[in-house]
């Protein structure tokens, strides 16, 4: 399975709660830029799992314009910044298995994404994810390897 982990785009801090923060214009632009770049690596997703937070919903809206509709799209309350990475890793793998998904996109937050990488790829420190950054993990059974990680400032 190829697991694409993406952080939401840059978000404004002008909101009543963390859940309600919206993407900035720069956040929308960089998310579109990364989605366009991603089309050279994957043509479709079998399964897309996203956080319920508004900035992630908006990031997915930008990404979704570059890809056909996935076989399955799910909003998971577990994919929030403070979520347990071991539980989320198991949940992602269980849904991928249930839906027979070979190409999975998860759009979520820091620090969860960094901890997910560390949880799934043994022996590495949690990487930082810039806003709109994407990491590809290749999963074979219980083993995973990090293939690449890119951000708007690295794809230039």
From TrEMBL:
It comes from the Bacteria. Pfam families: His_Phos_1. The keyword Translocase does not apply. SMART domains: PGAM. Gene3D superfamilies: Phosphoglycerate mutase-like (3.40.50.1240). Coiled coil: none annotated. Keywords: Hydrolase. The keyword ATP-binding does not apply. This is Phosphohistidine phosphatase SixA. It comes from Shewanella submarina. The lineage of its organism: Bacteria, Pseudomonadati, Pseudomonadota, Gammaproteobacteria, Alteromonadales. The gene is sixA.
């Amino acid at each position: 399975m190829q697991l694409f982990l993406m952080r939401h785009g840059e978000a404004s801090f002008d909101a009543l709660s963390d859940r309600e923060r919206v993407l900035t214009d720069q956040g929308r632009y960089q998310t579109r830029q990364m989605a366009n770049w991603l089309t050279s690596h994957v043509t479709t997703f079998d399964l897309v799992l996203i956080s319920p937070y508004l900035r992630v919903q908006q990031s997915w809206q930008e990404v979704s314009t570059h890809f056909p509709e996935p076989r399955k799209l799910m909003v998971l309350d577990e994919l929030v910044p403070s979520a347990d990475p071991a539980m989320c890793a198991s949940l992602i793998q269980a849904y991928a298995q249930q839906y027979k998904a070979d190409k999975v996109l998860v759009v979520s937050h820091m620090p969860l994404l960094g901890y997910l990488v560390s949880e799934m790829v043994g022996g590495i420190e949690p990487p930082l994810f810039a806003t709109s950054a994407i990491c590809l993990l290749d999963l074979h059974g219980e083993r995973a390897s990090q293939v690449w990680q890119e951000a708007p400032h690295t794809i230039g």
